[in-house]
Fold each of these.
Amino acid sequence: MRRVLPLLLATLALGMSACEKKSSSTNAAPAPTGSPGTQAATPAPADTLRIGVLASLTGGEATYGISARNGIMLALQEANAAGGVHGKKLDARVYDTQGKPEEAAQSATRLLTQDQVVLILGDVGSSATLAVAEKAQAAGVPVITPSATNPSVTQKGDFIFRVCFIDPFQGWVMAKFARENLKLNTVAVLRDNKNAYSLGLADTFVRTFTELGGKVVADESYSKGDTDFRAQLTAIKKMKPEGLYIPGYYSDAGIIARQVRELGLTVPMMGGDGWGSDKLFELGGSAVDGSYFSSHYSPDNPDARTQKFIADYKAAYGSVPDAIAALGYDAARVAIESLKKATPPSGATLRDTIATTHDFPGVTGTLSMDAHRNPVKPAVVLKVGEGKTTFVTTVAP
């Protein structure tokens, strides 16, 4: 299996890179890639179960989408190699949403009405997943998002699930860490005012830090696509905070970190799981050293299950999986186990089976679905330094 899997996945990855917005299919082996605008839709063959995969494979958050897709495909290929589900192979239809809600909605509609999938894995970001959730809920098709953390995602309806913790939890985690571990009394916040993810983390961080006796001395904002943050950072510097919380994506955080240090702010910076990418080091350089962010797992975790996943992922893709890849893997595995238990493996029966997930042994931690279809699971805090992250602590709910 380990000799065959890398070849299968490498072939899939090559097929997906052929054009900007893609659809691909994989059964026992990947099929050629085509454009959603031209490829004829066909129902799934009788000997397959078709699953939709939505992710930002191009655009500003492409690293997240690629990681999630890789983790998902690893799990699906493992399941197919082990005989599939109910004697059927899992056939994945993969679309690039570019991280845009309108693209996500269009791709979801295609998956639901033309590809006739039994389940959707994705999207990656909260804003795009909200668009997917609306379509899938109306169609009665379950969605499991690996990494959309905004609380409103699963509030779209009872067919919408996730395997990542939600924004209030990781906002709470970092506020608690800032107050109790870093012993900070005052902090500033710099949030993306056009991003549901960033707003969710910021709101909970501010509320929790204040409840714990700290003071938020500045709360500034920017908009996605901005590259100059000096005005906001100058205003923050005047308030002399002891720490700075930046709940954005790595694409913003790395640039912000450089400007933070250029302006002479030496306080520790903190973020959420959106920082979790190797691109953070490329964009931020040494400016991000000494920062902290909450995440879903650490490659340093000695758990045998986690280490096996890391080894298999490295064999397939040649790199250590990040948290989004691990979440993609867990989302697919939850889906696979639910498909095995559901009869029939679709619709309301599949939804009800996913909802009963309890003590599932994920590589990002043991998880159980709560009444709102959110997982109860721990978070980790990682420290950034010298081009890598190191495990600091685990924070349980």
Amino acid sequence: MRSFFLRLILASLLPVSLAGVSAAQGRAAVDEAVSLDSCRAMAMANNKQMRIQAERIKAAGYQKKEAFAAYLPSIDFAGGYTYNQKNISIFDSDQHLPVQVFDGKGYQFDLVTGPDGLPVKGPDGQYIPKNVAYLPKDAMTYDIHNVFFGAVTLTQPVYMGGKIVAMNKITKYAEELARSMHENGAEDIIYAVDAAYWQVVSLKAKHELATSYVALLDTLHNNVQAMINEGVATKSDLLTVDVKLNSANVDLVKVENGLTLSRMALAQLCGLPVDTQLRLVDEDAERPGQEPIATTYNMVDVYRNRPDLHALELGLKITEQKSKVALSSMLPNLALVGAYTFSNPNMYNGFKTKFNGAFSVGAMLTIPIWHWGGNYNKYRSAKVDETIMKLQIEDAKEKIDLQVSQASFKAGEAMKTYSMTQSNLAKANENLRQAQLGFKEGVQTTDNVMEAQTAWLKANSENIDAEIDVNLCRVYLSKVLGTMDYEQYYDTEK
């Protein structure tokens, strides 16, 4: 009986050690009962991963704006300062430059002549001019010890091989991808919250069941004790009942500990302190019979509604644009450039030690010619990534087909199981009533009553499991079909 009871009551518990957990452990209490929708909303608002995904959506939006800025002209400023040890001097010494004179026919050098009337040559073998212009070295020496310079440039891309257009599309798809990942995470969180919520409800119902079972055994113990007093039963019968009663009390404590752990897990998912004592609406309320689960679906709609598949399709679009970016490295790039450059000292109007500058406008054209196949292999690699993404989408669709089929089948089986457990529960209740009545009349033995109690315990436990399984199958099927309503629980624009 002990192993059977544990298998029915504790099978759904998480594999967490119960050592040291007490139902009397200090914890904060929640005054009002919490509904499933409230738990979902708290989990969506407090989950760290969802907040991370929301921040990633913001980051993708900023990257999208950054990519759009590449269409617009960019304005930059660059400046600097240089200290030079020496000045610049055009001449190494004072210079004497020959001067030409006009003789009526043209300009000629006026040379020094000798007594014979012929031009005289100097020691260097060159004719000696009669008139010279004196240029001192200092006049052609420029002070460049302190040089300040700067430039304001404006660059307007004209054609960049399609790179800018592709990058804008990539960032657009990346933002949509971040939203799809956010939606997929929302579905996972809702399913996890539902599983934890219904586990608490299940364990609370099984706790009440275990309490009722202990009460039945306690009543049986009192009845057997009365029969011993009247001499119609033996102490062996009483010891058999007491063993079952002690085992049931131990199991009841373990169910209480399991319920405490389940409440902790639900509180953690909701973003609350783990010692928060959540009281759920469905754990005390009468739950109506389960409505049938609609298992009809259209795979075209499923593909369109699944955020994870949509994320893969966006990944394919991104890889397609990345191949265009790789292709742009093999195409010409053209940009217009305007600049205003200035310096101190400057040479715009003689050498002056003050700031002056000038505007300039031009165009810059880059044409790739030969890179030993590097750019082409980069493009081929991007096309391979595109093929891989297509195969991943096909593989994902096949897995989704299987997932939907299995979820639909499991939902149908859950409804069948629930209907059978409802029928078995009614029979077990009647069987227990008949056994207790027969025991009072003396036509049923203690073993007959305990067998009826065991059947009653099993039927109730299976009915609880079947009811919870229907709820989980319902939400899981909506998840795999992509019809789960999660938008009411979050706002990605926050």
